[in-house]
From TrEMBL:
Gene3D superfamilies per record: Vaccinia Virus protein VP39
GO molecular-function term, one example from the UniProt record: DNA binding
Species whose genome carries this gene: Streptomyces glebosus
EC number in record: 2.1.1.-
UniProt keywords, alphabetically: Methyltransferase, Transferase
UniProt-recorded name of the protein: Methyltransferase
Amino acid sequence: MPYTLHRGDALTVLKSFPDESVDSVITDPPYNSGGRTSSDRTARTARAKYTSGDARHDLANFPGENRDQRSYRSWLTELLTEAYRASREHAVVMVFSDWRQEPTTSDALQMAGWTWSGTIPWIKPASRPRKGGPKQDSEFILWGVKGSLDKTRDLYLPGHFIASQPRKDRVHITQKPVEVMQQLVQVCPPGGTVLDPFTGSGSTGVAALKEGRNFVGVELSEHYAGIAEERLRGVLTQDDFELAGPEE
């Protein structure tokens, strides 16, 4: 089986992983962001923070959205430290963030031992304009490396992405486009293992399998773990699915 999906708390599960057992870490943690006041950031649900009032869906909430910024940095640092330990030399980490949490995310990444190597904007064309100022149309992917970047591979990725969140068959509040994730997972060597400690609906895993990588994920929500499992199995049962061969 080219994937394993653990159900439980990400930090607890990661502590059970062997040293140097994964080849890249690509994840979209709960941002614990949103709102101008502490109560707005810590008391509101994920749906209240990240879904507009006129949204035409009723997607399930997800846990982990009640930390203030200081506890978020402490928690994320510990988690990325465990991910660092579990990663092989030259492994790349990619962590999604919004603009509010970008500075503290870069702090956590570096305190965990990773060499911060850049920030990749993800621009969403379907975002709404904001009266009186620039619209918030971007999320950010902070990336780093364990040790040094492997430059022996003939790999060149974009410095930014332009793609809207999925609309058709959307199953998660903060679901990422598979076409973007398929490019990101290429930082993992062919046949290697991509780790996502916050699997959500499984988009990173779907992308990894489609690109000929193995996948190991962790998801706390039983609801979303079930959706992720279904999507991952669906990739493997597609009649026309073939694992990608090694890169030339």
